Amino acid sequence: MIRRPRNVVILVLVILAAFHLVLFASQNYKFTFKTGDGENTNWGGIEKIETDVKFPAVLTDETVKNEEKTTTRTQETTRIQETYTSEEESTNTEDQRDDIKFEPLKKDPTPESKELEFVRPPENTVLEMFGKEVEMDQNNEYVVPKPFLKKGINPYDGQPELLPRSTGIKKYTAFGNPEKLYCDTEYCYVNERKIKKEIIKETPEDMFTFLPPKKEFLKEFRNPCWKGRDLDNEEKLFCIPYFYIIGFTKCGTTDLFAILKNHTHVSSRAGKETHYFDRLRRGRIIRMNRKPTRLPVSFLSWTNAGRFRTNLISTYRHVPGNDVLFHGITMDATPSAVWDNEFWEIFHPGYREPPVTNPDVIATINPDSRIIVSLRNPISRMQSAYQFFCAFYVYQCDRPVTPEKFHNLVVEAVGMFQNCQKTNTDRGCVYSTETHQLATHLYASIYSVYLADWLKAFPREQIYVMMFEEHIHDEVASINSICDFLGISRFPVEYMKEYLKEHQIRNSLSDNNRIPYMMTETRQLLLDFFKPFLDDLVKLLGDDKWYWNMYN
User: Fold this and answer.
1) CB contact burial 353-386 (16+ within 10 A = b; e otherwise)
2) Which of 326, 389, 427, 514 could form a disulfide with 394 if both were Cys (CB 3.0 to 4.6 A apart)?
3) pLDDT in tens, 44-92
Protein backbone atom coordinates (compact mmCIF):
# COMPACT_ATOMS: atom_id res chain seq x y z
CA MET A 1 0.00 0.00 0.00
CA ILE A 2 2.84 2.36 0.73
CA ARG A 3 4.25 2.00 -2.79
CA ARG A 4 1.05 2.94 -4.64
CA PRO A 5 1.69 6.72 -4.73
CA ARG A 6 5.13 6.09 -6.15
CA ASN A 7 3.66 3.79 -8.82
CA VAL A 8 1.11 6.43 -9.77
CA VAL A 9 3.87 9.01 -10.14
CA ILE A 10 5.89 6.63 -12.31
CA LEU A 11 2.85 5.92 -14.48
CA VAL A 12 2.22 9.66 -14.96
CA LEU A 13 5.89 10.22 -15.90
CA VAL A 14 5.76 7.38 -18.44
CA ILE A 15 2.63 8.84 -20.04
CA LEU A 16 4.21 12.30 -20.21
CA ALA A 17 7.42 10.87 -21.71
CA ALA A 18 5.42 9.00 -24.36
CA PHE A 19 3.48 12.16 -25.18
CA HIS A 20 6.67 14.17 -25.64
CA LEU A 21 8.18 11.42 -27.78
CA VAL A 22 5.18 11.47 -30.12
CA LEU A 23 5.29 15.27 -30.21
CA PHE A 24 9.00 15.23 -31.05
CA ALA A 25 8.52 12.66 -33.81
CA SER A 26 5.74 14.73 -35.35
CA GLN A 27 8.09 17.69 -35.69
CA ASN A 28 10.33 15.83 -38.04
CA TYR A 29 12.05 18.64 -39.95
CA LYS A 30 15.44 18.94 -41.49
CA PHE A 31 17.71 21.13 -43.60
CA THR A 32 19.14 20.66 -47.01
CA PHE A 33 21.18 23.16 -48.96
CA LYS A 34 21.13 24.48 -52.47
CA THR A 35 24.41 24.82 -54.29
CA GLY A 36 24.75 25.88 -57.81
CA ASP A 37 25.33 25.03 -61.40
CA GLY A 38 23.37 28.19 -62.17
CA GLU A 39 20.16 26.32 -62.82
CA ASN A 40 18.05 24.20 -60.52
CA THR A 41 20.59 22.19 -58.55
CA ASN A 42 19.20 21.84 -55.07
CA TRP A 43 20.21 21.19 -51.56
CA GLY A 44 16.68 22.02 -50.53
CA GLY A 45 15.05 24.50 -48.22
CA ILE A 46 13.51 23.76 -44.86
CA GLU A 47 11.44 20.72 -45.65
CA LYS A 48 9.69 17.89 -43.95
CA ILE A 49 11.72 14.70 -43.98
CA GLU A 50 10.79 12.07 -46.53
CA THR A 51 12.59 8.84 -45.85
CA ASP A 52 11.56 6.94 -48.98
CA VAL A 53 13.63 8.96 -51.45
CA LYS A 54 14.58 6.80 -54.43
CA PHE A 55 16.52 7.01 -57.63
CA PRO A 56 14.47 6.38 -60.77
CA ALA A 57 13.94 2.65 -61.18
CA VAL A 58 15.46 2.69 -64.67
CA LEU A 59 18.34 4.83 -65.88
CA THR A 60 20.01 3.49 -69.01
CA ASP A 61 23.40 4.40 -70.41
CA GLU A 62 21.61 6.27 -73.19
CA THR A 63 19.81 8.40 -70.61
CA VAL A 64 23.12 9.27 -68.98
CA LYS A 65 24.63 10.31 -72.32
CA ASN A 66 21.69 12.57 -73.13
CA GLU A 67 21.13 14.09 -69.70
CA GLU A 68 22.77 17.38 -70.72
CA LYS A 69 20.24 17.83 -73.55
CA THR A 70 17.12 16.64 -71.82
CA THR A 71 17.91 18.39 -68.50
CA THR A 72 16.17 15.46 -66.83
CA ARG A 73 16.64 15.85 -63.15
CA THR A 74 16.65 12.98 -60.69
CA GLN A 75 16.17 12.79 -57.03
CA GLU A 76 19.33 11.76 -55.24
CA THR A 77 20.11 10.54 -51.80
CA THR A 78 22.85 11.97 -49.61
CA ARG A 79 23.44 12.07 -45.92
CA ILE A 80 23.22 14.57 -43.12
CA GLN A 81 25.34 13.50 -40.24
CA GLU A 82 24.71 15.00 -36.84
CA THR A 83 27.41 13.22 -34.89
CA TYR A 84 28.93 15.84 -32.64
CA THR A 85 31.79 14.30 -30.68
CA SER A 86 33.67 15.96 -27.88
CA GLU A 87 37.24 16.78 -28.79
CA GLU A 88 39.88 14.42 -27.38
CA GLU A 89 37.12 12.22 -25.87
CA SER A 90 35.75 10.94 -29.17
CA THR A 91 35.73 7.31 -30.17
CA ASN A 92 35.63 6.20 -33.77
CA THR A 93 31.85 6.43 -33.99
CA GLU A 94 30.01 5.77 -37.22
CA ASP A 95 28.15 8.49 -39.06
CA GLN A 96 24.47 9.00 -38.50
CA ARG A 97 22.78 9.65 -41.80
CA ASP A 98 19.42 10.83 -43.03
CA ASP A 99 17.96 10.80 -46.51
CA ILE A 100 17.55 14.15 -48.26
CA LYS A 101 15.05 14.96 -50.93
CA PHE A 102 16.31 17.08 -53.80
CA GLU A 103 13.81 19.27 -55.64
CA PRO A 104 14.22 22.24 -57.99
CA LEU A 105 14.57 25.67 -56.44
CA LYS A 106 14.83 29.15 -57.85
CA LYS A 107 17.93 30.48 -59.55
CA ASP A 108 21.11 29.83 -57.60
CA PRO A 109 22.17 33.02 -55.77
CA THR A 110 25.83 32.09 -56.34
CA PRO A 111 25.96 31.23 -60.07
CA GLU A 112 29.73 31.62 -60.12
CA SER A 113 29.88 28.45 -58.04
CA LYS A 114 29.50 25.50 -60.40
CA GLU A 115 28.29 22.19 -59.02
CA LEU A 116 27.78 19.02 -60.97
CA GLU A 117 24.33 17.52 -61.06
CA PHE A 118 24.67 14.02 -59.69
CA VAL A 119 22.64 11.17 -61.17
CA ARG A 120 22.25 7.47 -60.63
CA PRO A 121 25.33 5.67 -61.99
CA PRO A 122 24.89 2.76 -64.42
CA GLU A 123 24.95 -0.59 -62.68
CA ASN A 124 27.90 -1.89 -64.68
CA THR A 125 29.96 1.17 -63.67
CA VAL A 126 29.15 0.68 -60.01
CA LEU A 127 30.07 -3.00 -60.10
CA GLU A 128 33.32 -2.25 -61.93
CA MET A 129 34.39 0.48 -59.49
CA PHE A 130 33.02 -0.82 -56.18
CA GLY A 131 33.15 -4.57 -56.71
CA LYS A 132 30.77 -7.45 -56.06
CA GLU A 133 30.02 -6.19 -52.54
CA VAL A 134 27.52 -3.72 -54.02
CA GLU A 135 23.94 -4.90 -53.60
CA MET A 136 20.45 -3.47 -54.09
CA ASP A 137 18.09 -2.90 -51.21
CA GLN A 138 14.29 -3.10 -51.25
CA ASN A 139 14.09 0.51 -52.45
CA ASN A 140 16.34 -0.21 -55.43
CA GLU A 141 19.23 1.69 -53.80
CA TYR A 142 22.87 0.73 -54.11
CA VAL A 143 24.22 -0.71 -50.86
CA VAL A 144 27.85 -1.28 -49.92
CA PRO A 145 28.10 -3.44 -46.78
CA LYS A 146 30.09 -1.90 -43.95
CA PRO A 147 33.50 -3.60 -43.87
CA PHE A 148 34.78 -5.38 -40.81
CA LEU A 149 37.64 -3.38 -39.33
CA LYS A 150 40.37 -5.86 -38.55
CA LYS A 151 42.48 -3.93 -36.09
CA GLY A 152 46.07 -4.82 -35.46
CA ILE A 153 46.38 -7.32 -38.30
CA ASN A 154 49.63 -7.40 -40.21
CA PRO A 155 48.94 -9.01 -43.61
CA TYR A 156 52.64 -9.68 -44.20
CA ASP A 157 53.81 -11.21 -40.93
CA GLY A 158 50.72 -13.07 -39.87
CA GLN A 159 49.66 -12.42 -36.28
CA PRO A 160 52.11 -9.90 -34.79
CA GLU A 161 53.31 -10.13 -31.23
CA LEU A 162 52.00 -7.76 -28.60
CA LEU A 163 54.18 -4.78 -27.94
CA PRO A 164 55.98 -4.60 -24.60
CA ARG A 165 54.18 -2.34 -22.17
CA SER A 166 57.06 -0.47 -20.58
CA THR A 167 60.42 -1.50 -22.01
CA GLY A 168 60.02 0.20 -25.38
CA ILE A 169 59.59 -1.31 -28.81
CA LYS A 170 62.27 -3.88 -29.60
CA LYS A 171 60.69 -5.87 -32.41
CA TYR A 172 59.26 -4.73 -35.71
CA THR A 173 56.64 -7.45 -35.91
CA ALA A 174 53.80 -4.95 -36.04
CA PHE A 175 55.65 -1.83 -37.16
CA GLY A 176 57.74 -1.36 -40.26
CA ASN A 177 61.03 -3.16 -40.78
CA PRO A 178 63.48 -1.31 -43.05
CA GLU A 179 65.32 -4.57 -43.74
CA LYS A 180 62.32 -5.78 -45.78
CA LEU A 181 62.58 -2.87 -48.20
CA TYR A 182 65.23 -1.55 -50.51
CA CYS A 183 66.92 1.13 -48.42
CA ASP A 184 70.04 3.24 -48.40
CA THR A 185 71.42 5.08 -45.39
CA GLU A 186 68.51 7.52 -45.13
CA TYR A 187 65.57 6.38 -47.26
CA CYS A 188 63.61 3.29 -48.23
CA TYR A 189 61.95 2.81 -51.62
CA VAL A 190 58.75 0.95 -52.41
CA ASN A 191 55.92 1.45 -54.91
CA GLU A 192 57.65 4.47 -56.42
CA ARG A 193 57.82 6.29 -53.09
CA LYS A 194 60.87 7.64 -51.31
CA ILE A 195 60.29 7.15 -47.59
CA LYS A 196 62.40 8.27 -44.66
CA LYS A 197 63.59 5.27 -42.68
CA GLU A 198 62.34 6.89 -39.50
CA ILE A 199 58.79 6.83 -40.90
CA ILE A 200 59.03 3.11 -41.58
CA LYS A 201 59.97 2.43 -37.96
CA GLU A 202 56.78 3.95 -36.52
CA THR A 203 54.16 2.86 -39.05
CA PRO A 204 52.27 -0.41 -39.61
CA GLU A 205 54.09 -2.90 -41.77
CA ASP A 206 51.56 -2.62 -44.57
CA MET A 207 51.33 1.17 -44.87
CA PHE A 208 53.64 1.60 -47.85
CA THR A 209 53.69 -1.93 -49.22
CA PHE A 210 49.90 -2.00 -49.55
CA LEU A 211 49.61 1.60 -50.77
CA PRO A 212 49.99 1.62 -54.58
CA PRO A 213 51.97 4.20 -56.57
CA LYS A 214 50.14 7.48 -56.96
CA LYS A 215 49.72 6.87 -60.70
CA GLU A 216 47.54 3.85 -59.88
CA PHE A 217 44.90 5.93 -58.07
CA LEU A 218 41.69 5.46 -60.04
CA LYS A 219 41.09 8.22 -62.58
CA GLU A 220 37.34 7.70 -62.20
CA PHE A 221 37.47 9.20 -58.69
CA ARG A 222 38.38 12.72 -57.71
CA ASN A 223 39.23 11.35 -54.26
CA PRO A 224 42.43 9.26 -54.04
CA CYS A 225 41.14 5.66 -54.30
CA TRP A 226 42.44 2.40 -55.69
CA LYS A 227 41.40 -1.23 -56.14
CA GLY A 228 43.12 -3.76 -53.94
CA ARG A 229 42.62 -7.06 -52.15
CA ASP A 230 41.74 -7.37 -48.49
CA LEU A 231 42.93 -10.03 -46.04
CA ASP A 232 40.37 -12.45 -47.47
CA ASN A 233 41.84 -11.86 -50.95
CA GLU A 234 38.67 -10.14 -52.12
CA GLU A 235 38.97 -7.14 -54.42
CA LYS A 236 37.63 -3.95 -52.82
CA LEU A 237 37.77 -0.21 -53.15
CA PHE A 238 40.22 1.53 -50.81
CA CYS A 239 40.47 5.29 -50.27
CA ILE A 240 42.47 7.82 -48.27
CA PRO A 241 41.19 11.30 -47.33
CA TYR A 242 41.25 14.10 -49.87
CA PHE A 243 41.64 16.64 -47.06
CA TYR A 244 42.34 16.76 -43.34
CA ILE A 245 41.09 19.04 -40.58
CA ILE A 246 44.12 18.79 -38.30
CA GLY A 247 43.38 21.20 -35.42
CA PHE A 248 43.96 22.95 -33.21
CA THR A 249 42.02 21.55 -30.27
CA LYS A 250 39.30 23.94 -29.00
CA CYS A 251 39.47 26.07 -32.15
CA GLY A 252 36.08 25.31 -33.70
CA THR A 253 36.97 22.08 -35.49
CA THR A 254 33.79 20.31 -34.32
CA ASP A 255 31.67 23.08 -35.81
CA LEU A 256 33.66 23.04 -39.05
CA PHE A 257 33.37 19.28 -39.37
CA ALA A 258 29.62 19.35 -38.71
CA ILE A 259 29.02 21.89 -41.47
CA LEU A 260 31.28 20.41 -44.15
CA LYS A 261 29.94 16.88 -43.77
CA ASN A 262 26.55 18.17 -44.94
CA HIS A 263 27.96 19.06 -48.35
CA THR A 264 26.89 16.76 -51.18
CA HIS A 265 30.50 16.46 -52.34
CA VAL A 266 31.96 15.59 -48.94
CA SER A 267 32.01 12.25 -47.14
CA SER A 268 33.24 12.18 -43.57
CA ARG A 269 34.26 8.49 -43.81
CA ALA A 270 33.68 8.00 -40.08
CA GLY A 271 32.99 9.98 -36.95
CA LYS A 272 35.09 12.95 -36.01
CA GLU A 273 38.52 12.22 -34.55
CA THR A 274 39.67 8.93 -36.01
CA HIS A 275 43.11 9.50 -34.44
CA TYR A 276 44.73 7.23 -37.00
CA PHE A 277 47.85 9.22 -37.83
CA ASP A 278 48.50 10.69 -34.41
CA ARG A 279 47.82 7.59 -32.31
CA LEU A 280 46.40 4.39 -33.77
CA ARG A 281 49.12 3.87 -36.37
CA ARG A 282 51.65 3.82 -33.53
CA GLY A 283 49.75 1.36 -31.39
CA ARG A 284 48.32 3.99 -29.06
CA ILE A 285 44.69 4.17 -27.98
CA ILE A 286 42.58 7.22 -28.78
CA ARG A 287 43.13 8.79 -25.37
CA MET A 288 46.11 11.12 -25.23
CA ASN A 289 49.11 10.61 -22.97
CA ARG A 290 49.02 6.84 -23.38
CA LYS A 291 52.07 4.84 -24.40
CA PRO A 292 51.90 2.52 -27.44
CA THR A 293 50.95 -0.75 -25.78
CA ARG A 294 48.73 -2.20 -28.49
CA LEU A 295 49.08 -3.44 -32.02
CA PRO A 296 48.90 -0.62 -34.54
CA VAL A 297 45.78 -0.42 -36.67
CA SER A 298 46.77 -1.69 -40.10
CA PHE A 299 46.71 0.72 -43.00
CA LEU A 300 44.70 -1.76 -45.06
CA SER A 301 41.91 -1.82 -42.48
CA TRP A 302 41.83 1.93 -42.08
CA THR A 303 41.57 2.65 -45.81
CA ASN A 304 38.67 0.21 -46.09
CA ALA A 305 36.75 1.47 -43.05
CA GLY A 306 33.78 3.81 -42.84
CA ARG A 307 30.92 4.53 -45.21
CA PHE A 308 32.77 6.55 -47.81
CA ARG A 309 32.09 4.03 -50.56
CA THR A 310 28.31 4.32 -50.27
CA ASN A 311 28.60 8.10 -50.16
CA LEU A 312 30.87 8.27 -53.20
CA ILE A 313 28.38 6.30 -55.29
CA SER A 314 25.90 9.15 -54.88
CA THR A 315 28.34 11.65 -56.46
CA TYR A 316 28.29 10.10 -59.95
CA ARG A 317 28.18 12.31 -63.03
CA HIS A 318 29.62 11.65 -66.46
CA VAL A 319 31.08 14.81 -68.00
CA PRO A 320 32.23 14.62 -71.64
CA GLY A 321 36.00 14.97 -71.85
CA ASN A 322 36.48 14.28 -68.14
CA ASP A 323 37.62 10.89 -66.81
CA VAL A 324 36.21 11.56 -63.33
CA LEU A 325 32.88 9.81 -62.74
CA PHE A 326 32.61 10.05 -58.95
CA HIS A 327 33.18 13.62 -57.84
CA GLY A 328 32.91 13.28 -54.06
CA ILE A 329 35.82 13.81 -51.69
CA THR A 330 36.47 12.42 -48.22
CA MET A 331 37.87 14.05 -45.10
CA ASP A 332 39.47 13.15 -41.81
CA ALA A 333 38.92 15.54 -38.88
CA THR A 334 41.27 14.89 -35.97
CA PRO A 335 42.14 18.18 -34.19
CA SER A 336 45.09 16.69 -32.32
CA ALA A 337 46.78 15.51 -35.53
CA VAL A 338 48.55 18.87 -35.83
CA TRP A 339 50.41 18.51 -32.53
CA ASP A 340 50.11 15.01 -31.06
CA ASN A 341 53.30 13.05 -31.68
CA GLU A 342 53.60 11.96 -28.06
CA PHE A 343 55.96 9.13 -27.18
CA TRP A 344 57.91 9.54 -30.40
CA GLU A 345 60.96 9.01 -28.17
CA ILE A 346 60.16 5.28 -27.93
CA PHE A 347 60.58 4.87 -31.68
CA HIS A 348 63.62 7.13 -32.04
CA PRO A 349 65.82 6.84 -28.94
CA GLY A 350 68.78 9.18 -28.81
CA TYR A 351 67.13 12.03 -30.75
CA ARG A 352 66.63 15.45 -29.14
CA GLU A 353 63.83 16.27 -31.57
CA PRO A 354 61.46 14.00 -33.51
CA PRO A 355 63.06 13.15 -36.87
CA VAL A 356 59.60 12.77 -38.44
CA THR A 357 56.10 13.90 -37.45
CA ASN A 358 52.52 13.39 -38.66
CA PRO A 359 52.79 15.73 -41.68
CA ASP A 360 55.77 13.75 -43.00
CA VAL A 361 53.71 10.56 -42.99
CA ILE A 362 50.61 12.09 -44.61
CA ALA A 363 52.70 13.87 -47.26
CA THR A 364 54.53 10.66 -48.11
CA ILE A 365 51.22 8.85 -48.55
CA ASN A 366 49.72 11.59 -50.73
CA PRO A 367 51.63 14.86 -51.33
CA ASP A 368 48.48 16.36 -52.90
CA SER A 369 46.51 16.24 -49.64
CA ARG A 370 44.74 19.43 -48.59
CA ILE A 371 45.11 20.62 -45.02
CA ILE A 372 42.80 22.84 -42.95
CA VAL A 373 44.00 24.22 -39.62
CA SER A 374 42.24 26.62 -37.24
CA LEU A 375 44.10 28.94 -34.87
CA ARG A 376 42.69 30.79 -31.89
CA ASN A 377 44.08 33.36 -29.46
CA PRO A 378 46.54 31.04 -27.67
CA ILE A 379 45.60 32.27 -24.19
CA SER A 380 41.87 31.88 -24.85
CA ARG A 381 42.49 28.42 -26.30
CA MET A 382 44.40 27.39 -23.17
CA GLN A 383 41.63 28.56 -20.88
CA SER A 384 38.98 26.81 -22.98
CA ALA A 385 40.96 23.55 -23.01
CA TYR A 386 41.50 23.67 -19.25
CA GLN A 387 37.81 24.21 -18.56
CA PHE A 388 36.62 21.62 -21.07
CA PHE A 389 38.98 18.78 -20.19
CA CYS A 390 38.47 19.25 -16.47
CA ALA A 391 34.69 19.33 -16.84
CA PHE A 392 34.64 16.08 -18.84
CA TYR A 393 37.26 14.33 -16.69
CA VAL A 394 39.66 13.90 -19.59
CA TYR A 395 42.52 14.92 -17.29
CA GLN A 396 42.92 14.74 -13.59
CA CYS A 397 42.52 18.20 -12.14
CA ASP A 398 41.46 19.81 -8.90
CA ARG A 399 37.79 20.66 -9.20
CA PRO A 400 36.07 23.05 -9.18
CA VAL A 401 38.19 25.20 -11.48
CA THR A 402 39.19 28.61 -10.16
CA PRO A 403 41.39 31.48 -11.41
CA GLU A 404 43.91 30.71 -8.65
CA LYS A 405 44.16 27.02 -9.52
CA PHE A 406 44.57 27.86 -13.20
CA HIS A 407 47.31 30.37 -12.36
CA ASN A 408 49.27 27.80 -10.34
CA LEU A 409 49.06 25.29 -13.19
CA VAL A 410 50.22 27.91 -15.72
CA VAL A 411 53.21 28.78 -13.53
CA GLU A 412 54.08 25.08 -13.35
CA ALA A 413 53.70 24.52 -17.10
CA VAL A 414 55.76 27.57 -18.05
CA GLY A 415 58.44 26.54 -15.56
CA MET A 416 58.63 23.01 -17.01
CA PHE A 417 59.02 24.37 -20.53
CA GLN A 418 61.65 26.93 -19.59
CA ASN A 419 63.67 24.30 -17.75
CA CYS A 420 63.59 22.17 -20.91
CA GLN A 421 64.87 25.12 -22.96
CA LYS A 422 68.07 25.15 -20.90
CA THR A 423 69.18 21.86 -22.45
CA ASN A 424 67.11 21.48 -25.60
CA THR A 425 65.83 23.39 -28.62
CA ASP A 426 62.43 25.07 -28.71
CA ARG A 427 61.20 22.41 -31.13
CA GLY A 428 62.55 19.63 -28.95
CA CYS A 429 60.75 21.06 -25.93
CA VAL A 430 57.45 21.56 -27.77
CA TYR A 431 57.43 17.91 -28.85
CA SER A 432 58.91 16.51 -25.64
CA THR A 433 56.34 14.23 -24.06
CA GLU A 434 57.75 15.04 -20.61
CA THR A 435 56.88 18.74 -20.93
CA HIS A 436 53.25 18.06 -21.86
CA GLN A 437 51.46 19.19 -18.73
CA LEU A 438 47.98 18.04 -19.65
CA ALA A 439 45.79 20.32 -17.55
CA THR A 440 46.72 23.63 -19.22
CA HIS A 441 47.56 22.33 -22.72
CA LEU A 442 50.28 25.00 -22.91
CA TYR A 443 52.31 23.15 -25.53
CA ALA A 444 49.38 22.98 -27.98
CA SER A 445 49.21 26.79 -28.12
CA ILE A 446 52.76 27.09 -29.51
CA TYR A 447 51.43 27.16 -33.06
CA SER A 448 54.55 28.28 -34.93
CA VAL A 449 56.59 25.14 -34.20
CA TYR A 450 53.89 22.76 -35.38
CA LEU A 451 52.91 24.80 -38.45
CA ALA A 452 56.55 25.04 -39.52
CA ASP A 453 56.66 21.25 -39.78
CA TRP A 454 53.44 21.10 -41.80
CA LEU A 455 54.71 23.83 -44.13
CA LYS A 456 57.88 21.85 -44.71
CA ALA A 457 55.82 18.84 -45.74
CA PHE A 458 53.20 20.65 -47.88
CA PRO A 459 53.23 23.72 -50.17
CA ARG A 460 51.63 26.81 -48.65
CA GLU A 461 48.80 26.74 -51.20
CA GLN A 462 47.68 23.32 -49.88
CA ILE A 463 47.28 24.54 -46.30
CA TYR A 464 44.29 26.68 -45.33
CA VAL A 465 44.88 28.57 -42.08
CA MET A 466 41.62 29.74 -40.49
CA MET A 467 41.40 32.26 -37.65
CA PHE A 468 38.79 31.02 -35.20
CA GLU A 469 37.69 34.52 -34.22
CA GLU A 470 37.09 35.48 -37.87
CA HIS A 471 35.20 32.25 -38.45
CA ILE A 472 32.68 32.81 -35.64
CA HIS A 473 32.29 36.47 -36.66
CA ASP A 474 31.15 35.51 -40.19
CA GLU A 475 30.69 31.77 -40.55
CA VAL A 476 29.07 32.07 -43.98
CA ALA A 477 32.08 33.85 -45.51
CA SER A 478 34.47 31.54 -43.69
CA ILE A 479 32.82 28.32 -44.89
CA ASN A 480 32.49 29.58 -48.46
CA SER A 481 36.19 30.44 -48.48
CA ILE A 482 36.98 26.89 -47.37
CA CYS A 483 34.71 25.51 -50.09
CA ASP A 484 36.72 27.51 -52.63
CA PHE A 485 39.93 26.07 -51.18
CA LEU A 486 38.56 22.53 -51.56
CA GLY A 487 37.24 23.17 -55.07
CA ILE A 488 33.61 22.43 -54.19
CA SER A 489 30.52 24.57 -54.66
CA ARG A 490 29.61 27.17 -52.06
CA PHE A 491 26.75 27.11 -49.63
CA PRO A 492 24.33 29.90 -50.66
CA VAL A 493 24.22 32.66 -48.07
CA GLU A 494 20.52 32.54 -47.16
CA TYR A 495 20.50 28.78 -46.69
CA MET A 496 23.72 28.83 -44.72
CA LYS A 497 22.31 31.43 -42.36
CA GLU A 498 19.19 29.36 -41.84
CA TYR A 499 21.27 26.30 -41.07
CA LEU A 500 23.44 28.13 -38.56
CA LYS A 501 20.35 29.56 -36.90
CA GLU A 502 18.91 26.11 -36.35
CA HIS A 503 22.15 24.32 -35.48
CA GLN A 504 23.65 25.99 -32.46
CA ILE A 505 25.18 22.86 -30.99
CA ARG A 506 28.42 23.67 -29.22
CA ASN A 507 30.62 22.10 -26.59
CA SER A 508 28.86 24.12 -23.90
CA LEU A 509 29.81 24.15 -20.23
CA SER A 510 27.85 25.13 -17.16
CA ASP A 511 28.99 28.22 -15.26
CA ASN A 512 30.44 26.19 -12.42
CA ASN A 513 32.83 24.56 -14.93
CA ARG A 514 34.15 27.89 -16.18
CA ILE A 515 36.74 30.27 -14.79
CA PRO A 516 34.86 33.52 -14.06
CA TYR A 517 37.94 35.58 -14.91
CA MET A 518 41.69 35.25 -15.48
CA MET A 519 44.08 36.77 -13.00
CA THR A 520 46.16 39.69 -14.30
CA GLU A 521 49.34 37.88 -13.26
CA THR A 522 48.32 34.80 -15.27
CA ARG A 523 47.60 36.77 -18.40
CA GLN A 524 50.86 38.72 -18.22
CA LEU A 525 52.88 35.55 -17.67
CA LEU A 526 51.33 34.01 -20.79
CA LEU A 527 51.73 37.18 -22.85
CA ASP A 528 55.45 37.18 -22.10
CA PHE A 529 55.79 33.46 -22.74
CA PHE A 530 53.98 33.41 -26.10
CA LYS A 531 55.51 36.61 -27.55
CA PRO A 532 58.58 35.03 -29.25
CA PHE A 533 56.47 32.20 -30.64
CA LEU A 534 53.89 34.63 -32.01
CA ASP A 535 56.74 36.61 -33.59
CA ASP A 536 57.69 33.40 -35.41
CA LEU A 537 54.05 32.76 -36.39
CA VAL A 538 53.67 36.24 -37.87
CA LYS A 539 56.84 35.75 -39.93
CA LEU A 540 55.71 32.29 -40.98
CA LEU A 541 52.26 33.40 -42.18
CA GLY A 542 53.15 36.97 -43.15
CA ASP A 543 50.38 38.81 -41.30
CA ASP A 544 50.33 40.81 -38.06
CA LYS A 545 46.80 39.64 -37.33
CA TRP A 546 48.29 36.54 -35.73
CA TYR A 547 49.20 38.66 -32.69
CA TRP A 548 45.45 38.81 -31.98
CA ASN A 549 45.93 42.49 -30.97
CA MET A 550 47.38 41.31 -27.65
CA TYR A 551 50.41 43.61 -27.71
CA ASN A 552 48.83 46.89 -28.82
Assistant:
1) bbebbbbbbbbbbeeebbbbbbbbbbbbbbbbbb
2) 389
3) 332 332 333 222 223 233 333 333 333 333 333 333 233 323 333 333 3
